[in-house]
Amino acid sequence: MSDTQPNTFVANVDLKLKDKLLKDLKDQGFEFTTPPYTIFSAQKKGVTCIFYQSGKMVVQGKDRAAFIEFYLEPEILGTFKFTNPLIGVDLSPHIGIDESGKGDFFGPLCVAGVYASEKDIGELQSIGVRDSKLITDINIHKIADKIKNKFLYHIVKINPSKYNEIYANFKNLNRLLGWGHATTIEQLIEKSNCRKVVIDQFADESVVITALKRKKIDVDLTQRHRAEEDLVVAAASILARHAFLDGLDQLGKDIGIVLPKGASAATIAAGKKIFSKYGIDGLLRVCKQHFKTLDQILGKERQ
Q: What is the pTM of this model?
């Protein structure tokens, strides 16, 4: 959808999907109210979604286009088509890179890369690739499998025990991420012989450039915010998220406790439970040590 579309989008939705909508929108960070004649009114920054008892859904807000195109159409209305398919999309062969897990106390840090040729970029759209933040966890796994079956990719997954060891040397998360991006780029260049790279910018541009120079890697590098709008970067974001979710789940199974995403009150509660059962060594096997969340769990101020 482009900015020339109406400010209000209206569609009819099967009432049987209300539970899925409630769960999905909650996972996406929406807050809910129940005005008269509605099943719910869901709001977050940039998007308001009102679901009426009649089955009519109204979507408004400056970010409505992404919500409609990347969530409502493919997962609720049963269609997946951009208003102008592939217009404005970079169709040149390139590598896309993104990460997942840097804001999560528990679980690994994952950096993923995908290479797509010109003829394959349209295929990414057809299998449902879009920004991983707009996809439910269940669908992340399904789409990730499709990407892995069809495209060259590389994933760097750093579990907490190794993460804490490496972080002690880097003393800086962005430098660690720079190393992860450079390593992923290096591996995909070897697999694809492509040197055009697009990444989702997470820090000053010099961070990744410096990491690439250390490895003596020469690339045509583009760094930009919201790079997940690029289909190849979006594919990388899905693989990174998939690797993070799998890693988080496995660590939880290993320790016998469900590990929450993020760094919330639920995270602190789980951390205290792990600490009481396994001590600090057990906790550090599943968490990122430099997070202030650790101090809240241990009940102390970091020196």
A: 0.72
